[in-house]
Amino acid sequence: MVHDLLSNAATYRPLSPRVALGLDWLARFDPATPLGRHAIDGDAVFALVQSYETGPASTKQFESHRAHLDIQFVVAGAEIMEYAPIHGLTVTTPFDPAKDIMFYAEPAAFTSLLCPAGTFAIFYPADAHKPSCSVGAAAPVRKIVVKVRLD
Description:
Elements: E1 2-5, H1 17-27, E2 36-41, E3 45-53, E4 62-64, E5 68-76, E6 78-85, E7 91-96, E8 101-104, E9 111-116, E10 119-123, E11 127-133, E12 140-149
Antiparallel strand pairs: 1-10, 2-3, 3-12, 4-8, 5-10, 5-12, 6-9, 6-11, 7-8
Protein backbone atom coordinates (compact mmCIF):
# COMPACT_ATOMS: atom_id res chain seq x y z
CA MET A 1 0.00 0.00 0.00
CA VAL A 2 1.16 3.51 -0.86
CA HIS A 3 -0.36 6.76 0.44
CA ASP A 4 1.03 10.09 -0.78
CA LEU A 5 0.39 13.36 -2.59
CA LEU A 6 0.16 13.33 -6.38
CA SER A 7 2.90 15.97 -6.38
CA ASN A 8 5.23 13.14 -5.23
CA ALA A 9 4.08 10.66 -7.91
CA ALA A 10 7.45 10.57 -9.67
CA THR A 11 8.75 8.57 -6.70
CA TYR A 12 6.37 5.72 -7.58
CA ARG A 13 6.77 5.64 -11.39
CA PRO A 14 9.45 2.90 -11.10
CA LEU A 15 6.91 0.48 -9.54
CA SER A 16 5.90 -0.61 -13.05
CA PRO A 17 5.41 0.88 -16.52
CA ARG A 18 1.62 0.54 -16.11
CA VAL A 19 1.62 2.30 -12.75
CA ALA A 20 3.70 5.06 -14.38
CA LEU A 21 1.08 5.39 -17.15
CA GLY A 22 -1.69 5.72 -14.57
CA LEU A 23 0.18 8.28 -12.49
CA ASP A 24 1.09 10.29 -15.60
CA TRP A 25 -2.59 10.31 -16.65
CA LEU A 26 -3.59 11.58 -13.21
CA ALA A 27 -0.96 14.33 -13.41
CA ARG A 28 -2.50 15.51 -16.71
CA PHE A 29 -6.12 15.07 -15.56
CA ASP A 30 -8.50 17.73 -16.89
CA PRO A 31 -11.23 18.50 -14.33
CA ALA A 32 -13.68 18.81 -17.25
CA THR A 33 -13.26 15.07 -17.96
CA PRO A 34 -16.70 13.45 -17.80
CA LEU A 35 -17.64 10.74 -15.36
CA GLY A 36 -17.14 7.15 -16.48
CA ARG A 37 -14.46 4.86 -17.83
CA HIS A 38 -11.51 6.27 -19.77
CA ALA A 39 -8.94 4.05 -21.50
CA ILE A 40 -5.31 4.84 -20.77
CA ASP A 41 -3.80 1.67 -22.25
CA GLY A 42 -6.82 -0.33 -23.39
CA ASP A 43 -7.93 -2.80 -20.73
CA ALA A 44 -4.46 -2.90 -19.16
CA VAL A 45 -4.78 0.55 -17.58
CA PHE A 46 -8.00 2.55 -17.38
CA ALA A 47 -9.51 5.26 -15.22
CA LEU A 48 -12.93 5.40 -13.58
CA VAL A 49 -13.89 9.03 -12.97
CA GLN A 50 -16.47 9.19 -10.18
CA SER A 51 -18.48 11.70 -8.15
CA TYR A 52 -20.35 10.60 -5.04
CA GLU A 53 -21.10 11.47 -1.45
CA THR A 54 -19.02 9.85 1.27
CA GLY A 55 -20.77 7.89 4.00
CA PRO A 56 -20.18 6.43 7.43
CA ALA A 57 -17.46 3.77 7.52
CA SER A 58 -19.99 1.43 9.14
CA THR A 59 -21.92 1.33 5.85
CA LYS A 60 -18.88 0.41 3.73
CA GLN A 61 -17.03 -2.90 3.25
CA PHE A 62 -13.39 -3.88 2.97
CA GLU A 63 -12.58 -5.16 -0.52
CA SER A 64 -9.63 -6.43 -2.52
CA HIS A 65 -8.84 -7.34 -6.11
CA ARG A 66 -6.70 -10.01 -7.73
CA ALA A 67 -6.30 -8.99 -11.38
CA HIS A 68 -5.77 -5.25 -10.82
CA LEU A 69 -4.25 -2.83 -8.40
CA ASP A 70 -6.06 0.41 -7.65
CA ILE A 71 -4.62 3.90 -7.75
CA GLN A 72 -7.30 5.91 -5.96
CA PHE A 73 -6.90 9.69 -6.36
CA VAL A 74 -9.09 12.31 -4.67
CA VAL A 75 -9.57 15.23 -7.06
CA ALA A 76 -11.95 17.29 -4.90
CA GLY A 77 -13.30 16.90 -1.39
CA ALA A 78 -11.88 14.51 1.18
CA GLU A 79 -12.49 10.98 2.36
CA ILE A 80 -11.07 8.34 4.61
CA MET A 81 -9.83 5.11 3.07
CA GLU A 82 -9.32 2.30 5.55
CA TYR A 83 -6.64 -0.33 4.94
CA ALA A 84 -5.72 -3.75 6.33
CA PRO A 85 -3.61 -6.63 4.97
CA ILE A 86 -5.88 -9.43 3.68
CA HIS A 87 -3.94 -12.09 5.58
CA GLY A 88 -6.23 -13.40 8.30
CA LEU A 89 -9.34 -11.47 7.22
CA THR A 90 -12.70 -13.25 7.02
CA VAL A 91 -14.17 -13.34 3.52
CA THR A 92 -17.86 -12.37 3.46
CA THR A 93 -18.35 -12.40 -0.31
CA PRO A 94 -16.15 -14.82 -2.31
CA PHE A 95 -14.03 -13.60 -5.17
CA ASP A 96 -16.02 -12.69 -8.29
CA PRO A 97 -13.63 -12.99 -11.26
CA ALA A 98 -16.00 -11.10 -13.58
CA LYS A 99 -15.89 -8.06 -11.28
CA ASP A 100 -12.39 -8.73 -9.86
CA ILE A 101 -13.56 -8.16 -6.30
CA MET A 102 -14.09 -9.88 -2.97
CA PHE A 103 -15.33 -8.50 0.34
CA TYR A 104 -14.29 -9.00 3.96
CA ALA A 105 -15.69 -8.65 7.45
CA GLU A 106 -14.47 -5.70 9.47
CA PRO A 107 -11.00 -6.54 10.81
CA ALA A 108 -10.09 -6.06 14.44
CA ALA A 109 -7.33 -3.62 13.45
CA PHE A 110 -6.91 -1.37 10.43
CA THR A 111 -5.30 1.90 9.39
CA SER A 112 -7.34 4.98 8.48
CA LEU A 113 -5.87 7.08 5.69
CA LEU A 114 -7.04 10.69 5.51
CA CYS A 115 -7.25 11.55 1.81
CA PRO A 116 -7.87 15.21 1.02
CA ALA A 117 -7.81 16.53 -2.55
CA GLY A 118 -4.45 15.86 -4.18
CA THR A 119 -3.89 12.60 -2.28
CA PHE A 120 -3.65 9.12 -3.80
CA ALA A 121 -3.39 5.59 -2.48
CA ILE A 122 -2.22 2.48 -4.31
CA PHE A 123 -3.79 -0.78 -3.17
CA TYR A 124 -2.30 -4.11 -4.27
CA PRO A 125 -4.10 -7.50 -4.16
CA ALA A 126 -2.83 -8.11 -0.60
CA ASP A 127 -4.32 -4.80 0.56
CA ALA A 128 -7.94 -4.84 1.72
CA HIS A 129 -9.34 -1.34 1.51
CA LYS A 130 -12.55 0.45 2.39
CA PRO A 131 -12.85 3.70 0.39
CA SER A 132 -15.50 6.42 0.39
CA CYS A 133 -15.72 6.85 4.17
CA SER A 134 -16.73 10.29 5.37
CA VAL A 135 -14.50 12.64 7.29
CA GLY A 136 -17.08 13.74 9.85
CA ALA A 137 -20.31 14.44 7.96
CA ALA A 138 -21.11 13.07 4.51
CA ALA A 139 -19.67 15.27 1.77
CA PRO A 140 -19.25 15.26 -2.01
CA VAL A 141 -16.07 13.80 -3.51
CA ARG A 142 -14.74 13.65 -7.04
CA LYS A 143 -12.33 10.77 -7.37
CA ILE A 144 -10.51 8.76 -9.99
CA VAL A 145 -9.75 5.08 -9.60
CA VAL A 146 -7.08 3.96 -12.05
CA LYS A 147 -7.21 0.18 -12.52
CA VAL A 148 -3.85 -1.34 -13.43
CA ARG A 149 -3.89 -4.96 -14.66
CA LEU A 150 -1.23 -7.09 -13.01
CA ASP A 151 -0.43 -9.74 -15.63
